[in-house]
């Protein structure tokens, strides 16, 4: 029972006459104490509507276990479970525990949806007690009005969302014996007793942990279950691994923590978690704020509590355990371990440290620990990796200890675990703070700490559930950040692991906090500002300090942090809000610069909107802070960025239905209708609807984009009405409160209450749509507590509930107010951190009465939808009158709207930004390829020999630098470092607040000021020399790095700024340097003038000047309370004729940059000004000519101080009451003259002339008359109200409340249908419902039954006889029939058959079974099958008709004897197999997450796919009919995520069983880095499949050595079996291009250096294969090289930069396998100095490849840790160039080229003549040095190693030493053989063959050169030839 029963007060139940009937509203008469209830359903007699199988019967639902279940998947439309309790009980509570959470990723949609609890007096007639609809909860716990019963029924109207299968662990019913009073939970508890730490722990519904911790305590001790939760614990898990000490509550990704896991044991030593984890007694588990307890299956009782820095364990061993052990496992970590150590100290202590990864694996934290026990351990074993033994010290991430205690005499072992971020010694000191072993005292201290905090909110209200949710979520809000300050007052700061600091340096009460996730939880900190101002102040100071220690900007928790952390984007929002609320105890200028760096570096992507919208919002933080401190330059800079959100607005973008609506889209482009609702497509964890409101920094501007505030409010309401609001995540969480800004606070009240306490519809989780919309409260008090996938996000979500329940929600940061929502409690007392108490009363509040009718604050009318922070902290009473209808006017006027940023407002400038080094300055530089020399960073260094030039300085290929520096003489060995110097002057050091620097550097740089290093970027730590390379390549040399320099390094007078810029390598393509520096000074703020003089009559304001500033023009004045200022020109200053309340008129000293002066303090008027409707500041004269046409000449002379608008109004009067014509003419400010001419007879008309400030058609509505009018005939009327103009502040147009959503109709009652058949349906022939009445032709009888075949058969059959059957074929149906019969050849005519028909004996023919029997004589029964013409479903009237074969010459009398017929289902969907249509699948669980196989929406959200796949899982597709043609290949479409999916994933095809004959294997490696990218792989089967087969697809895959985080094989959508089609011969392509990503397979080994597998990326305009390494290979099956010419040339497009890949990369081309025959090798030299420079390499193959081949590309190269890749590979193209292959018989005259030189003996060239025997030709006139070329000779892969030549040589003319050299490539190329060809005879005509071995085997394609040599011996004459050469041959000699 989830809600624990306490001894409680209970109203009297009426028993035997006073029992209140079920459903009655009768009040109880008096109170009494109820008895504790028990589960009276336990082991009750139970029956059910059905069951899935014998192991899942109804009794499982009442056996008290959650590892057994009742399942019913029968065809019964209404499922039910009936209980006979055996006697009558009084019931008041029932609990339903659904089983889906442990079965499928489809939870919660397999949870029972619509159901009711019913009671009966007799077990026959049932009455509803309680009805539940649209349930999605796993555990449903319901209290009901007590009722007495013996019989109960759970009646299920809809078993699940996606099916009608019910899956229940338990039905629990709680009550007491008849005549007794059942108890209910206590009410009006202390706040701490409402906290239930189990809320948000079941499933992925919060990711919190029930273990003990203190508010903001470092220790977060808690249970770790085996289900993979991000905070370590899932409520539904059956095993506990132990109890760990660190975690980050409520975050996603991987979570962080789980360290220092301890587990008490009674077993022998093991270090394997699968062995040491233990089941536990769920009923024993207890948790409260500061405490956790449980009893393990071993009988050990565990109790835990904690302090800030110490975890306390108390283990009670069972009586039977004489030896108890405690495991300490240091390898346990949610995000991954990096290192650990342990040291056994003495006999009761272990110390050491752990180093573990942050959330998502970003960065790390280091924690030191000391574990001390209250008993000595008798012995121990420690381990590191596989090494185990009694070794006192161990190091390594996989290490731990097993400690053995003697528990024979004492059963309790206690442990204290001290943690520290500082050292082991400090961890010991933390533990040493507690000298005793009083566990109960520690528990009480923890409870007191939580009570002190939670008691700050006192709730008076009757709704216990809301109080339970409130205090639990308030508890969750206070779990982070963590106070990481030691008890000694020391700490380590974020990103600064090596410095131990004293907290006192930042203030006497300072404590350092860590653990940030401000993207999620920045609003939460406003809660701390109310109740914990000191802690809040320290959190803010910690964030500001982080700007000093973090180094460069980091969005995530990269690098070192003192405790687990997540992300930092919105840290500035927290700081800004604090400053506006008066928390200003920090360096505001450091904070401002840090915020600016945050905004500048905010990560965005061009194809999305979320990052850009958030970047704009982030820019508003420094903008608003700059406004608050008076930094106009910074305000103006970031104002532009803050307004950049408007660039993304596409006003014409349609919504998902095609309606023009307007959305933020990537760069304002138009997207498809299907893109609007797609989560994660263009926006992080959301869609375009949810990010439509993401401009909180400029609500007014956002409203303008949408057509105004009313139009925006209508659209926002529509957003809620279509259920696009995602209440479970942060991106649109403030949307309900936006109505306050728009003038519709009643809609804020409606929706804030709706999502706080009511059942709402939610369509989305943070990565997509739910399978079905969920209707539920978002915040509940059951173990789920939240909706699926809703992380608590460190209090980001829980604090939303706390705020909304109070009716207060944080306003925009920088404004210091809270928005008013709809409070849910009748009264709340808030004990503020100021010491004051604020009481919030909501009189009459309820779910319906959610609308504020009126409000008062401390008794005064309160009519605005926001309240100042200072008013809350001042205490008092805020009282609301609530009602069930909106008050459309309350808080609705524009004047009542919350404050917003006025982007047009003027900003006081209290700072000056003085350039010390301007951009594009001239610098000295040294580019000589050597160090700059000793002292080069000092001011006194002599740089006269250095060059100089204007910045930017550097070189590149785009000519960006203004001054080009030298990189030296060798572009492949460029100078590593270039040096720069710039001197500048500085003065008035004391007024400089900071130095703001801006740097462009490519690649790395170190900056010095007067010899002090002040900044280092992209460079390693430690000493730097000329040869030191930068860390990494810089992608864009225009990116700026902003940073602050300590001004203390400046000196008065001349200073020097120096810089050294380093290349990333010696072939880097560019270098860049630009630098600017400005001094930020605080301007002097003059005092306020004194002695205000208000002159109402003259409308002037006078003052006494500030000393030294006497001139009136040095002042400025305001008439609107300081919102805007106007330069003064006199003292006293004319201020105008309007009403001004005291204080509205102000005067101050104006700013003067020249005098280093900021605007001064203001002097305020101390009296009111009254309005002057007529202000005589002009002399107005008119000359009216009334002869002929009327001409009016008007002059106006300005005589007062007036500079605003002026309008001359002419009225032409014709004697009637109102003007005939009115004309308004604006005139220039100052004196004027103007004429007006009327084409009328002047004598008949009069004219009036007025001078006013504005005119709307009625002269009496002009607010100000500037002169006495000239009037000949006045209009009737009176002057304006002397009180001044009425401010237009109307109520906005009313928008109606949303229409109530219709209730889902109740499931209609439907008649029960017969039970769904199984996989087979057997019908006995004798079991007919009717049969033919016809007689057998023999006249003896009709059809008969008789004994036969061991039972009963139908006999005496004849032609035309029939039998009818009522058959329920079920919903799935059957399509195959098998008949068992006996049809002997001597009794039954050949060709006889049975026809199966529907409806009648002549009805639709659906199947025919031919009766074929080879035997004579009765008694031999056989079976024959046939396919039906269609699948039969439902209940059918089936007729079996007997047909005799014809002809029947022997008049055989019978058709046969028939025993039974059986239907089954044969599948034939092998050609397109939807994998979710399995007939069976494995029931094993994925060991990576303890979840079974599941299904989810498939590719493109069409259909379903199989998910949560794992090694050894299988799916069966039974009785698949492949027909006679069969199938011989298999393909599958799937998606694989390289982060979670095994690299060697594969699918095996087995026959008959998961271990049956293996007929095929398909590799299915990951398809991309994230889910959603699909690929189809295909391969041949080892045999053709024909006929009916049971197909089993078995999934395989495993992690490589050292690989972690892999748990899946992939997501599998569909498959297909097919028959290879012999493709017709296609015309051979000249070129064959193969894309590398189209590989059929690749090796799954990991890159040695980064432990990652190869992957497919988007590059070079398409896809490429990346993360390649030496030994990597890719295979391409059945590549068709053509059968005619084939291919012998290859080119590869690739990218291989020299800073990432070695210079000796090659690709081997192999056939058949990765170690098959090499047919080519291509060298792939480096392509450039950075990725993105794709080039093409070309090479010949060793041979011409023909036909279809399995092609393999194998990569090689001398990779290292820095050159860890061989390249990125795009495509390869095979081509053909003609080759020769006539090497075996080479006619030498068929040369491709020969020498053009002449025979020196006869000056003739080589020639040809008739060859041997006159056949063919031979080469003649040969001479020394002559050559013949035979190019592109293809020797194939076997090659040749012998050469022979047939020739003739005349000894009279031929050299005796004649020879032929065989060379490769050229006449002087590699010599591979020499054959002597001496003369063959005394004359020509005698031929011989000379041969010899080559020095190497020739293979592949070669250019062969035959070079002829020979020379005359000394004194020899007449010799001129080498010989006549006929033919030659190359051969392979054995």
Automatic annotation (TrEMBL):
| Location of the CBM6 domain | 1327-1464, 1471-1618, 1632-1775, 1784-1931
Methyltransferase found in the keyword field: no
Give a Pfam family name.
Glyco_hydro_92N
Region Disordered, annotated ranges: 1272-1319
Q: Which Gene3D superfamilies match?
A: 2.70.98.10, alpha-1,2-mannosidase, alpha-1,2-mannosidases domains, Galactose-binding domain-like, GH92 mannosidase domain
Ranges where the F5/8 type C domain occurs: 28-176
Per the UniProt entry, the signal peptide is 1-29
Which keywords, in A-to-Z order, does the entry hold?
Answer: Signal
Record flagged with keyword Signal: yes
Record-given protein name:
Alpha-1,2-mannosidase
Organism, scientific name: Paenibacillus glycanilyticus
């Amino acid at each position: 029972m989830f809600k624990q029963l306490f001894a409680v007060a209970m109203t009297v139940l009426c028993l035997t006459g006073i029992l209140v009937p079920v459903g009655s509203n009768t009040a109880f008469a008096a109170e009494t104490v109820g008895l504790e209830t028990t589960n009276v359903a336990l082991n009750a007699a139970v029956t059910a509507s059905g069951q899935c199988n014998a192991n899942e019967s109804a009794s499982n639902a009442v056996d008290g276990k959650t590892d057994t279940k009742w399942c019913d998947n029968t065809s019964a439309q209404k499922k039910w479970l009936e209980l006979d309790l055996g006697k009558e009980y009084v019931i008041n509570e029932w609990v339903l525990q659904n089983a889906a959470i442990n079965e499928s990723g489809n939870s919660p949609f397999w949870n029972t949806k619509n159901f009711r609890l019913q009671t009966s007096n007799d077990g026959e007639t049932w009455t509803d007690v309680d009805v539940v609809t649209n349930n999605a909860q796993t555990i449903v716990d319901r209290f009901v009005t007590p009722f007495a019963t013996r019989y109960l029924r759970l009646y299920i109207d809809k078993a699940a969302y996606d099916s009608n299968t019910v899956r229940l662990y338990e039905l629990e019913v709680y009550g007491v014996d008849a005549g007794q009073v059942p108890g209910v939970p206590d009410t009006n508890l202390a706040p701490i007793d409402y906290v239930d730490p189990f809320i948000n722990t079941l499933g992925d519904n919060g990711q919190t942990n029930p273990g003990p911790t203190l508010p903001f305590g470092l220790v977060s001790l808690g249970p770790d279950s085996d289900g993979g939760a991000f905070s370590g614990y899932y409520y539904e898990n059956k095993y506990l691994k132990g109890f760990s000490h660190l975690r980050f509550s409520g975050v996603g990704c991987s979570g962080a923590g789980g360290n220092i896991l301890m587990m008490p044991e009674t077993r022998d030593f093991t270090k394997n978690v699968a062995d040491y984890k233990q089941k536990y007694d769920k009923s024993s588990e207890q948790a409260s704020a500061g405490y956790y307890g449980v009893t393990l299956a071993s009988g050990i009782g565990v109790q835990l509590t904690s302090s800030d820095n110490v975890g306390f364990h108390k283990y009670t061993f069972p009586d039977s355990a004489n030896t108890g052990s405690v495991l300490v496992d240091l390898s346990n970590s949610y995000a991954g371990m990096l290192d650990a150590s342990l040291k056994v100290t003495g006999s009761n202590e272990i110390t050491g440290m752990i180093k573990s990864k942050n959330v998502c694996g970003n960065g790390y934290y280091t924690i030191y620990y000391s574990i001390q026990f209250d008993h000595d351990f008798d012995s121990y074993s420690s381990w590191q990796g596989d090494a185990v033994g009694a070794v006192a010290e161990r190091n390594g991430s996989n290490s731990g200890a097993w400690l053995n205690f003697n528990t024979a005499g004492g059963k309790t072992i206690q442990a204290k675990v001290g943690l520290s971020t500082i050292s082991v010694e400090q961890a010991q000191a933390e533990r040493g703070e507690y000298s005793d072993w009083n566990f109960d005292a520690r528990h009480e201290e923890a409870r007191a700490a939580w009570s002190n905090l939670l008691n700050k909110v006192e709730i008076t209200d009757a709704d216990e559930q809301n109080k339970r949710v409130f205090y639990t979520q308030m508890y969750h809000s206070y779990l982070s950040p963590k106070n990481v300050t030691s008890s000694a007052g020391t700490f380590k700061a974020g990103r600064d692991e090596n410095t131990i600091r004293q907290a006192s340096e930042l203030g006497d009460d300072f404590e350092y906090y860590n653990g940030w996730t401000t993207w999620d939880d920045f609003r939460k900190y406003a809660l701390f500002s109310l109740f914990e101002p000191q802690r809040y102040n320290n959190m803010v100071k910690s964030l500001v300090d982080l700007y000093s220690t973090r180094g460069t900007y980091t969005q995530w928790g990269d690098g070192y942090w003192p405790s687990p952390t997540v992300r930092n984007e919105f840290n500035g929002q927290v700081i800004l809000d604090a400053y506006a609320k008066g928390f200003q105890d920090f360096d505001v200028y450091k904070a401002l610069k840090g915020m600016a760096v945050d905004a500048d570096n905010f990560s965005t992507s061009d194809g999305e909107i979320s990052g850009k919208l958030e970047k704009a919002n982030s820019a508003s933080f420094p903008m608003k802070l700059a406004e608050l401190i008076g930094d106009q330059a910074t305000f103006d800079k970031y104002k532009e960025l803050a307004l950049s959100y408007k660039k993304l607005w596409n006003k014409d973008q349609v919504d998902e239905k095609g309606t023009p609506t307007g959305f933020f889209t990537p760069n304002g482009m138009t997207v498809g209708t299907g893109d609007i609702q797609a989560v994660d497509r263009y926006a992080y964890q959301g869609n375009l609807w949810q990010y439509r409101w993401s401009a909180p920094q400029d609500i007014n501007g956002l409203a303008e984009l949408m057509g105004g505030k009313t139009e925006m409010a209508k659209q926002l309401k529509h957003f809620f009405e279509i259920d696009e609001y995602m209440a479970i995540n942060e991106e649109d969480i403030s949307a309900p409160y936006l109505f306050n800004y728009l003038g519709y606070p009643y809609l804020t009240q409606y929706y804030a209450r709706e999502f706080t306490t009511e059942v709402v519809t939610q369509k989305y989780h943070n990565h997509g749509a739910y399978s079905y919309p969920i209707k539920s409260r978002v915040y509940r008090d059951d173990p789920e507590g939240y909706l699926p996938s809703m992380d608590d996000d460190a209090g980001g979500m829980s604090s939303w509930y706390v705020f909304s329940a109070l009716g207060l929600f944080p306003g925009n940061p920088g404004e210091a107010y809270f928005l008013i929502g709809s409070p849910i409690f009748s009264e709340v007392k808030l004990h503020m951190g100021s010491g004051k108490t604020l009481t919030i009363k909501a009189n009459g509040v309820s779910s319906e009465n959610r609308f504020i009718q009126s409000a008062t604050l401390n008794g005064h009318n309160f009519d605005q939808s926001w309240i100042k922070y200072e008013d809350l902290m001042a205490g008092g009473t805020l009282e609301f009158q609530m009602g069930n209808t909106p008050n459309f006017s309350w808080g609705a006027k524009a004047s009542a709207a919350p404050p917003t940023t006025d982007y047009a407002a003027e900003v006081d400038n209290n700072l000056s930004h003085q350039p010390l080094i301007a951009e594009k300055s001239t610098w000295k530089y040294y580019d000589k390829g050597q160090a700059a020399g000793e002292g080069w960073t000092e001011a006194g260094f002599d740089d006269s020999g250095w060059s100089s030039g204007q910045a930017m300085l550097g070189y590149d290929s785009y000519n960006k630098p203004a001054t080009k520096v030298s990189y030296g003489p060798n572009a492949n060995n460029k100078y590593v470092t270039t040096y720069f110097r710039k001197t500048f002057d500085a003065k008035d050091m004391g007024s400089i607040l900071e130095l703001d620097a801006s740097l462009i550097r490519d690649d790395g740089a170190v900056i010095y000021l007067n010899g002090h290093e002040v900044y280092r970027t992209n460079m390693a730590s430690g000493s730097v020399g000329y040869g030191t390379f930068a860390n990494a390549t810089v992608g864009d040399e225009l990116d700026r790095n902003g940073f602050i320099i300590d001004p203390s390094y400046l000196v008065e007078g001349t200073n020097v700024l120096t810089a050294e810029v380093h290349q990333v390598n010696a072939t880097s393509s560019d270098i860049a340097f630009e630098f600017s520096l400005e001094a930020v000074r605080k301007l002097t703020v003059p005092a306020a003038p004194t002695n205000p003089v208000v002159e109402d009559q003259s409308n002037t304001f006078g003052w006494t000047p500030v000393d030294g500033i006497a001139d009136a023009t040095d002042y400025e004045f305001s008439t609107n309370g300081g919102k805007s200022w106007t330069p003064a020109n006199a003292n006293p200053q004319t201020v105008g004729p309007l009403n001004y309340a005291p204080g509205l008129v102000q005067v101050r000293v104006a700013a003067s940059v020249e005098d280093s002066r900021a605007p001064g303090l203001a002097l305020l008027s101390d009296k009111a000004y009254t309005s002057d409707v007529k202000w005589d500041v002009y002399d107005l004269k008119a000359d009216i000519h009334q002869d002929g046409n009327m001409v009016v000449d008007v002059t106006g002379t300005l005589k007062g101080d007036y500079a605003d608008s002026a309008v001359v109004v002419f009225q032409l009067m014709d004697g009637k009451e109102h003007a005939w014509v009115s004309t308004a003419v604006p005139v220039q400010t100052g004196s004027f003259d103007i004429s007006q001419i009327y084409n009328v007879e002047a004598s008949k008309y009069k004219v009036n002339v007025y001078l006013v400030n504005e005119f709307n058609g009625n002269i009496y509505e002009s607010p100000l008359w500037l002169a006495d009018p000239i009037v000949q005939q006045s209009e009737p009327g009176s002057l304006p109200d002397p009180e001044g103009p009425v401010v237009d502040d109307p109520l906005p147009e009313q928008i109606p409340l949303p229409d109530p959503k219709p209730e889902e109709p109740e499931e209609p009652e439907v008649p029960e249908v017969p039970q769904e058949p199984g996989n087979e349906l057997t019908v006995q022939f004798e079991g007919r419902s009717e049969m033919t009445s016809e007689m057998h032709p023999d006249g003896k009888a009709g059809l008969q039954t008789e004994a036969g075949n061991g039972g009963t058969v139908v006999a005496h059959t004849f032609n035309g006889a029939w039998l009818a059957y009522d058959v329920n074929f079920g919903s799935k149906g059957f399509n195959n029939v098998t008949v068992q019969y006996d049809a002997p050849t001597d009794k039954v005519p050949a060709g006889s058959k049975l026809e199966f028909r529907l409806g009648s004996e002549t009805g639709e023919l659906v199947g025919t079974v031919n009766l074929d029997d080879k035997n004579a004589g009765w008694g031999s029964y056989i079976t024959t099958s046939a396919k039906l013409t269609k699948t039969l479903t439902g209940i059918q009237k089936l007729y079996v008709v007997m047909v005799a074969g014809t002809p029947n010459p022997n008049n055989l009398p019978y058709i046969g004897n028939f025993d039974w017929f059986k239907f089954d289902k044969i599948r034939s969907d092998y050609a397109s197999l939807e994998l979710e249509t399995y007939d069976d699948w494995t029931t094993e669980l994925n060991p990576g997450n303890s979840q079974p196989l599941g299904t989810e929406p498939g590719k493109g959200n069409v259909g379903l796919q199989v998910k949560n796949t794992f090694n050894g899982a299988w799916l069966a597709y039974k009785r698949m009919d492949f027909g006679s043609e069969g199938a011989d290949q298999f393909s599958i479409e799937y998606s694989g995520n390289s982060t979670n999916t095994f690299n060697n994933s594969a699918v095996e095809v087995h026959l008959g069983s998961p271990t049956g004959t293996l007929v095929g294997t398909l590799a299915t490696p990951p398809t991309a880095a994230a889910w959603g990218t699909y690929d189809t792989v295909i391969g041949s089967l080892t045999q053709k499949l024909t006929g009916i087969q049971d197909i089993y697809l078995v999934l395989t895959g495993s992690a490589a050595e050292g690989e972690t985080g892999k748990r899946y094989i992939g997501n599998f959508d569909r498959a297909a079996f097919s028959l290879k089609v012999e493709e017709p011969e296609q015309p051979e392509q000249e070129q064959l291009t193969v894309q590398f990503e189209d590989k059929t397979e690749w090796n799954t080994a990991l890159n040695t250096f980064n432990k990652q597998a190869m992957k497919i990326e988007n590059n070079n305009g398409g896809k490429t294969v990346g993360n390649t390494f030496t030994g990597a290979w890719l295979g391409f099956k059945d590549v068709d090289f053509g059968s005619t010419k084939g291919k012998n040339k290859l080119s590869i497009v690739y990218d291989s930069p020299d800073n990432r890949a070695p210079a000796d990369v090659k690709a081997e081309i192999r056939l058949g396998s990765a170690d098959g025959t090499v047919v080519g090798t291509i060298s792939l030299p480096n392509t450039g100095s950075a990725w993105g420079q794709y080039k093409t390499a070309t090479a010949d193959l060793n041979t011409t490849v023909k036909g279809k081949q399995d092609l393999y590309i194998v990569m090689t190269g001398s990779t290292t840790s820095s050159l860890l890749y061989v390249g990125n590979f795009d495509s390869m193209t095979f081509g053909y160039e003609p080759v020769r292959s006539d090497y075996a018989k080479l006619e030498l005259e068929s040369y491709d080229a020969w020498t053009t030189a002449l025979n020196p003996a006869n000056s003739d060239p080589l020639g040809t003549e008739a060859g041997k025997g006159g056949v063919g030709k031979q080469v003649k006139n040969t001479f020394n040095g002559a050559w013949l070329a035979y190019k592109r000779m293809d020797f194939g892969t076997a090659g040749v190693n012998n050469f022979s030549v047939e020739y003739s040589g005349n000894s009279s003319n031929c050299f005796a030493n004649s020879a032929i050299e065989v060379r490769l490539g050229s006449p002087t190329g590699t010599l591979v053989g020499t054959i002597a060809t001496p003369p063959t005879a005394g004359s020509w005509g005698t031929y011989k063959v000379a041969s010899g071995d080559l020095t190497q085997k020739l293979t592949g394609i070669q250019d062969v050169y035959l070079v002829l040599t020979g020379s005359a011996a000394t004194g020899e004459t007449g010799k001129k030839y080498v010989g006549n050469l006929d033919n030659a041959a190359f051969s392979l000699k054995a």
